[in-house]
Amino acid sequence: MNRLILLLLSCLWLSLPLTNASAQRPAPEKRSFRSEAVDKKIREMESLLRSYDERLWQMFQSCYPNTLDTTVRYQRDEKGDDDTFVITGDIEAMWLRDSGAQVWPYMRFLKSDEHLRHMVRGLLRRQFRYITIDPYANAFNFGETGSEWQTDQTDMKPILHERKYEIDSLCYPLRLAFEYWLLTGDDSIFDQTWLEAVGQILRVFREQQRRGGNKTSYTFLRKTSAMHDTTANYGYGNPARPCGLIASFFRPSDDACILPFLVPSNFFAASVLRKAAVILTDVNHNEPLARECRALAEEVTIALQEHAVVEHPLFGRVYAFEVDGFGGHIMMDDANAPSLLSLPYLCDVQADDVIYQNTRRMVWSEWNPYFFRGTSAEGIGSQHTGLDQIWPMSIIMKGLTSADREEQRQCIAQLLRTDGGKGLMHESFDKDNPAKFTRSWFAWANGLFGELVLRAFE
């Protein structure tokens, strides 16, 4: 029945007036970064997408290059080396997570576009440097300018935009570095700063296994009326029983975890630690550090199977969203990635894994408290934007984790009719009224949409 409803709704958007989506792309001279390879791919897709639907073509050419067009600040540093700062969109700061995810849809072009390769190389260098400055921070300023969060009760510095500790902030740079190395063979970025960054990541992950107690060196408090924007127990977060998993104070949504062991982020950590170990062995010949990465990845993997798998009354064995090691668990999913839905996209979980498939059905249903179905669309939201707000990112991720082209195109159909007339993706939109949306400039979601279109139509 749900598929029939979606099919009928997909037909409705065909008769809607076209948005002025093509006007959303800046003129060539106003783009912050240009990639000949990306522009060539956009031109190659024009005939195919236009023959399918004009709206699709307009949205693709606006969304796919949005990160390059509007958020990249590439330069040479004082030593003449690559240096890249990537803002998240309508916030003039660089998130370790967002920046790594924003350039990911263009990685396929690194071999054919040297300018693009240098840009990604510069981003990785900056990410490694930021991690060495403070591995507990999630977002950074271009310079020591401070931010509106300087009064947070944590170890703030002027270079930090925000200091919310999130496991995934340390995972995305490792994922990007491994892919960059595989695609280009360039190992010049794996220098002393890289080694120091990996060492800092391991130090944080080990500390946040909580084997030394729940009072760790990191604390965070914020004066706010939003409960999810600060932490419990005077900044230490809720307690956890050590079990091999890594605690995260905040989710990828930048909202506080309820239970400390965030399951999707632990899957992500295990995956990227194995990738880092390969680089440390093959490039740095640092077997002790590589061995430490592999050992931690194995601890987390075993603990996930022991503590993150829960028997659901309807769906069977599924992954919980958060656990505490005491037996407590939270059954839900959030739109931000890493999420349970996104596990095959970001981690080593296979899409046909039985537990993942059970989990997928659970989180895309009313059994997930942040799943919303309305007259416009259905999808997963987030505490970050409140009730009844669907994130396009969740719909995109549903498509990216499916091998079914019909399902991928149904996801695209929902996205095309919920842009609020703006021709771009948003952070979230109201399930019954897409004109009510948050964030008109959210580059990560725009690039992901382009990635899904390529997946569904190439």
What does it look like?
This protein is mainly alpha-helical. The chain has one domain (about 1-10, about 30-455): Glycosyltransferase. The chain is built from 15 helices and 15 strands. It has helices spanning about 1-15, 35-50, 55-65, 65-70, 95-105, 115-135, 165-185, 190-205, 265-280, 285-305, 345, 355-365, 390-400, 405-415, 445-455; strands at about 70-75, 80-85, 95, 140, 160, 260, 310, 315-320, 320-325, 330, 370-375, 380, 390, 430, 435-440. The strands form 6 sheets. The chain has a 3-stranded antiparallel sheet with strand order 3-4-5. The relative contact order is 0.12.
In short:
The chain has 15 helices and 15 strands. The protein has helices spanning 2-13, 36-52, 54-63, 66-70, 96-103, 114-133, 167-184, 192-207, 263-282, 287-307, 343-346, 354-363, 392-400, 405-416, 443-457, and strands at 72-76, 82-86, 94-95, 139-140, 160-162, 261-262, 309-312, 316-319, 322-323, 329-330, 371-373, 378-380, 389-390, 428-430, 437-438.
CATH second-level architecture: Alpha/alpha barrel
CATH fold-level name: Glycosyltransferase
CATH class: Mainly Alpha
Distance between the termini: 29 Å
CA radius of gyration is 21 Å
* β-sheet strand percentage: 5-15%
Uncertain segments are 1-22
Oligomeric assembly: single chain
| Major sheet: arrangement of strands | 3-4-5
| Helix/strand order, N-terminal first | HHHHEEEHHEEHHEHHEEEEHHEEEHHEEH
Query: Mean pLDDT score, rounded?
Result: 94
Q: By helix and strand content, what is the structural category?
A: mainly alpha
Number of separate structural domains? 1
User: What's the number of helices?
Assistant: 15
SS elements, strand count: 15
Shape: globular
**Roughly what percent helix?**
40-55%
Largest sheet: 3 strands, antiparallel
